[in-house]
């Protein structure tokens, strides 16, 4: 957790420091060209690939600064790609360990090759127009919605107190109250505010004087929804597949399963999770079918595990 805080502070501090450099360059260009800043500062990739390189040419030893600038862009892109690629591959490997765990390197190479092929159109003459519309819609809503739902699932479905106990098991101590406030209230509220602001201020994309046609805007919205639509689709599928009335189905799905257990080798921790889930089942009064005996034998399982621990001692 300490490393996570340090990384966040370093990232925010770097962005804050870079703001002085960026806006000082933009101000100098606006003053030297006798144009308002709005005419110099235009959103989109042109700021990185056109405005800043032009500003670098006015510096002393401009070739050296150009090398530093594009080397910085290269390392920044690689660093971002590492995190995104690891997230993608880890998700598939964890979901299908039987097929992918032993072939993780090959699977990672296939994903890299696929992303390379998908990126080829972006380096064509029309690539900047495609990049602009992808950049305009890809992160506008998906990241905010997913972040908000993560907070809701962890804090209000899994339970923030249960999450605290899991973190205590891993770190040996509970996090301070500040994190609970952030996860339960501050972060979800900020996410909703950002989402509402994005919806209100959303305008059709444009690149320079070119305005995109309706089919291109529809394509952009399709790309934006690709990472969001699977969540309601899977939710509807799970509700239709579950048994019981509609309220019982929803209630049974809005609770953690026995698989949500920390793998620390502690029988008491597993019993605690079982009791938590058993209480949820009893509260929701959900017909368990083949698993109906689980709650009945819950106390027996915990007693048996406790006896096993005592015999080992």
Total E-strand runs: 2
First CA to last CA: what distance? 33 Å
Low-confidence stretches: 267-271, 273-313
Question: Mean pLDDT, as a whole number?
Answer: 77
What's the Cα radius of gyration? Answer: 26 Å
- Give helix % range: over 70%
SSE run:
HHHHHHHHHEEHHHHHH
Coarse shape? globular
Oligomer, anyone?
single chain
The biggest beta sheet reads: 2 strands, antiparallel
Strand order of the largest sheet: 1-2
Main structural class: mainly alpha
Descriptive notes:
The chain is mainly α and 313 residues long. 76% of the residues lie in helices and 1% in strands. It has 15 helices and two strands. The chain has a two-stranded antiparallel sheet with strand order 1-2. Helix 8 runs antiparallel to helix 9 (177-201). The longest helix has 34 residues, at 62-95.
Question: What is the structure about, briefly put?
Answer:
It contains 15 helices and two strands. It has 313 residues and is an all-alpha fold.
List keywords for this structure.
mainly alpha, single chain, 15 helices, two-stranded antiparallel ribbon
Which secondary structure elements does this structure contain, and how are they paired or packed?
Layout: H1 2-33, H2 37-40, H3 46-56, H4 62-95, H5 97-100, H6 104-119, H7 127-138, H8 142-171, H9 177-201, E1 206-207, E2 210-211, H10 214-225, H11 230-241, H12 246-253, H13 267-284, H14 293-296, H15 298-312
Antiparallel strand pairs: 1-2
Helix pairs in contact: 7-10, 8-9, 13-15
């Amino acid at each position: 957790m300490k490393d996570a805080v340090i990384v966040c502070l370093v990232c925010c501090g770097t962005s804050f420091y870079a703001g002085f450099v960026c806006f000082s360059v933009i101000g100098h260009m606006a003053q030297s060209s006798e144009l308002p800043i709005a005419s110099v500062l235009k959103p989109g990739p042109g700021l990185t690939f056109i405005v800043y390189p032009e500003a670098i040419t006015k510096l002393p030893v401009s070739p050296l600064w150009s090398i530093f600038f594009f080397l910085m862009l290269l390392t920044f892109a690689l660093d971002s790609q590492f995190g995104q690629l690891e997230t993608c591959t880890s998700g598939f490997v964890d979901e299908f360990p039987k097929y992918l765990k032993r072939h993780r390197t090959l699977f990672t190479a296939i994903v890299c090759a696929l992303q390379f092929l998908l990126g080829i159109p972006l380096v064509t003459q029309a690539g900047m127009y495609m990049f602009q519309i992808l950049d305009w819609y890809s992160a506008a809503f998906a990241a905010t919605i997913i972040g908000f739902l993560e907070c809701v699932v962890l804090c209000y479905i899994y339970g923030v107190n249960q999450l605290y106990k899991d973190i205590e098991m891993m770190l040996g101590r509970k996090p301070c109250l500040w994190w609970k406030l952030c996860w339960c209230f501050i972060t979800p509220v900020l996410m909703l505010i950002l989402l509402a602001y994005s919806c209100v201020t959303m305008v059709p994309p444009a690149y320079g004087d070119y305005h995109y046609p309706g089919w291109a805007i529809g394509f952009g919205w399709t790309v934006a929804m690709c990472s969001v639509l699977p969540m309601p689709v899977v939710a509807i599928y799970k509700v239709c597949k579950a048994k019981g009335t509609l309220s019982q189905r929803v209630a049974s799905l809005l609770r953690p399963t026995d698989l949500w257990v920390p793998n620390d080798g502690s029988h008491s921790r597993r019993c605690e999770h079982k009791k938590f889930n058993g209480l949820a089942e009893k509260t929701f009064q959900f017909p368990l079918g083949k698993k109906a005996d689980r709650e009945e034998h819950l106390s027996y399982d915990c007693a048996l595990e406790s006896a096993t621990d005592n015999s080992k001692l």
